[in-house]
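Let's sit down with a protein and look at its sequence and fold side by side. We need material for that, and I hope you will provide a protein of your own picking. Once you have written the record down, we can walk along the chain together.

***
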Amino acid sequence: MRAVSFRSGRALLAAMSLAACSSDSDSGQILPPKTEVPAQGNPQEDTAISNTLRPELLAFTPELIQRLTVAPGFQVSLFAQDLGDPRMMAVAPDGSVYVTRPKKGDVVLLRDTDGDGRAEAPRAVLSGLENVHGLTLHEGKAYVATPTQVFAAALLADGTWGPHQLFVDRLPDGGQHPNRTLAVGPDRKLYISVGSSCNACAETNPEHATMLRVNLDGTGREIFARGLRNTIGFGWQPQTGEMWGFDHGSDHRGDDIPPEEFNKLLPGKDYGWPYAYGARQEDPVIDKPKNMTKQQYAAMSEPSVLDYQAHSAPIGMVFYTGTQFPAEYQGDAFVAMRGSWNRKPATGYKLVRVHFEGGQPVGFSDLVSGFLLDGGRAHLGRLSGVTQAADGSLLLGDDTGGAIYRVAYRP
């Protein structure tokens, strides 16, 4: 599928008008439908708008995988099942796959020792951490996050972990977005995504709705960027080393605003939430901030680079560095769109490719879709984490179906 470049605001509104007639399908549309931001004085300015549609979850069976739609040359198979709520994943150099399970409060190890493409029975390497979510590996250590703490543990030779030790304490209480995610950047610092405590509000804790950064000895904790409602998926483009993240837009503004933002994450920048979104568009519902207008706040915020359909709910994200996919996929990002509960028709529920050219993003296309069934009234899973396996395939988590899928290229 050809990638299409677009932005919110000036270029996006023009592009959206061309896409409006086909935007409600779930078949790889990469431009959102036409949206209008209310002008000053419009009655919608102070009125929340919300549609609720929660597609029914179908009981998971391996046969349902055959109903998925994949990009040409790719196939999806079942890597693991009966995992409960697999969420974030990380892969060790030896191919071991570690998976957090927030409801079970543990991290499990998965291995495919016989090379048949299916993991053997999971083995717990950590337990007793309620709502454990974020996970990253770096230089022989594992880092995991609960809503308010980060722990570190040594990776042992047999794939198990040593005792976990407190690494970061007193993260802001969870609120509406309690799931913290972690990654170590090229600067050898640990980045911690902290979502907002609410849908749209003026936060009282300055560390809410931010990207935090801390040294690997636990010192130097700081706010790297702010105005990020819930940037669960983030990473560094391998060609440029630049940091990118996918942020969740606010709810209750209608079916098509605000968009999900694909942002270049820069130190010291404010990305606008809760007062602005996209290419410095003013939020139509929330009251203005103290000491300035929403227009002034929007003008000082960092605009998004690309925008995606509102309410798609981007979760896990990974940049591709493997060789199992064709060469043109090198340096592209893959994002698990968990899917909407507050849009009619439903959107998301797919694995999306972010196309990069010259180290910069230019558009989106679907890699795996079809998780929505029966015209969007049912779904066979909601996606969570995505990571690159040791062989270069992608592993895609589904925390409602309790499964992990393997996405591989088979021309």
Q: What stands out?
A: Confidence is low (pLDDT under 50) at residues 1-46. The longest helix spans residues 10-19.
